[in-house]
Design goal:
With 408 residues, this protein is an alpha/beta fold. It has 13 helices and 21 strands. The chain folds into 2 domains: 174 residues, Rossmann fold (3-Layer(aba) Sandwich); 221 residues, Rossmann fold (3-Layer(aba) Sandwich), CATH 3.40.50. The chain is globular, with a radius of gyration of 25 Å. The structure holds flavin mononucleotide. The site of flavin mononucleotide (FMN) has 15 residues, from helix 4.
């Protein structure tokens, strides 16, 4: 489901009030398939029990540097060598200061110093502590050494004040963990542009024509591309899910806006995936003021065609050779496979994903999708019902396999 699967994650928990949220983080990371070993500082133990973490990870939680495990090994060395990623959430000002200066006075700081795994810090503290020149200097030094940070965010703090210092939300931290784990993946150095959401075509200043797209499929594709190290751009109409961490969002409203944004982004892209539900027609004229109902029995709207984004990208790549891989979706209500094959040929695509949007468990708004994978080489594969995240992961895996990496 995500690149956390089968990864060894060391989760450091330090003594801030936000550490109750790290139990949720540990649980979610374990649910995504990571092996999560939690190390708590003695200050964290004032706020939360190791038992909570053992219950959600199914693994022993660690607190003491001087107690060897059952095999006689000392935990800072085993954790530091096995970790694929060390994440500290929340990271206190105190622990950040220790890490900046190379201190190793507890199990967590000793593990970090002994490890060469990537390190991700999610700071949480009062605004004054965060903004203090000492903390800022420590953060700068750590960033210079390649340490990754997620947050802190602005908002309500435990003291009751509002300001910068809130722990990043758990889904954001999970996104950052996946981003860091993916940095050396097979799409490293490759630019992947994806579209998502349903465009809005205005009738007047308060009304528009749209469709039920939530953007979930495009967002899942962006996560899957990011997880493999791609520089990922999501050109999106309004979404019902957030733009994932580590993905650059370009927010648009109309099909014309999406056309303009995509043409600007695909020039240097390696992959383009069109997963948005783009209006084919728009009102020929947009009323300057709200259309009044008084004195009208009805209203006739004249519609005109919108520009063909995928078709234009397909045409341009015949001249420019870019993007290297072109993927489309065909959301159909009848004969989706036939319609998709015709679209693949007409628009010069490499891969097309056909889905029947009349099925209740697939298409718009659903968290699952049932699709048929079709490619230029003649493969037609009906895939079983899967989560949109799994469909996305499979599509991105096929993009990688499609020969992209053998091209310059
Ligand atoms: C109620 C309470 C809440 C605290 N919250 C934070 C916090 O959010 N961030 C922070 O940096 N320190 C916070 N502290 C201070 C740390 O607990 C203290 O600096 C401690 O030495 C941190 O140790 P550690 O980094 O080893 O976990 C808090 C202290 C108390 C008493």
């Amino acid at each position: 489901m995500s690149n956390l699967r089968d990864k060894h994650v060391v989760l450091g928990v330090t003594g801030g009030i936000a550490c109750y949220k790290s139990a949720d983080l540990a649980s979610k990371a374990a649910q995504e398939g990571a092996r999560v070993d939690v190390i708590l500082t003695s200050a964290a133990l004032k706020f939360i029990s190791p038992l909570t973490f053992t219950a959600v990870t199914g693994r022993r939680a660690w607190t003491d540097m001087y107690t060897p495990d059952e095999a006689g090994r000392f935990p800072h060395v085993t954790h530091s060598r096995q970790a694929d990623l060390i994440v500290i959430a929340p990271a206190t000002a105190n622990t950040i200061a220790k890490l900046a200066h190379g201190l190793a006075d507890n199990l967590l700081t000793a593990t970090v110093l002994d490890s060469r795994a990537p390190l991700l810090l999610a700071p949480a503290m009062e605004t004054h502590m965060w903004e203090h020149p000492a903390t800022q200097e420590n953060v700068r030094a750590l960033k210079e050494r390649g340490v990754h940070f997620v947050g802190p965010e602005a908002g309500h703090l435990a003291s009751g004040a509002e300001g910068v210092g809130r722990l990043a939300e758990v889904p954001t931290i999970l996104g950052a963990m996946r981003y860091v784990l993916g940095l050396n993946g097979p799409l490293r150095g490759r630019k992947v542009v994806i579209t998502a959401g349903g465009t809005r075509e205005p009738i007047d200043p308060v009304r528009f024509i749209t469709n039920p797209s939530t953007g979930k499929m495009g967002v899942a594709l962006a996560e899957a591309a990011r997880d493999l190290g791609a520089t990922t751009v999501l050109v999106h109409a309004p979404l019902q899910v957030p733009v994932p961490y580590g993905v650059r969002g370009v927010s648009i409203l109309t099909a014309q806006d999406m056309f303009d944004a995509v043409m600007a982004e695909v020039e240097d892209a390696d992959v383009f995936i069109a997963a948005a539900a783009v209006a084919d027609f728009r009102p020929a004229r947009r009323a300057e003021h709200k259309v009044k109902k008084e004195g009208r029995e009805g209203l006739v709207l004249e519609l005109e065609r919108t520009p063909d984004i995928l078709g234009t990208v397909g045409e341009r790549r015949q001249e420019t050779g870019r993007p290297l891989v072109l993927v489309g979706f065909a959301a159909e209500t009848e004969n989706p496979v036939e319609a998709a094959r015709a679209k693949l040929a007409r628009k010069n695509l490499d891969i097309i994903i056909a889905n029947d949007v009349t099925a209740a468990d697939a298409g718009f708004a659903a968290d699952t999708n049932r699709v048929v994978y079709i490619d230029r080489e003649g493969r037609v594969e009906p895939w079983p019902l899967m989560s949109k995240a799994e469909v996305a992961e499979r599509i991105i895996a096929r993009v990688v396999e499609f020969g992209l990496l053998t091209k310059p």
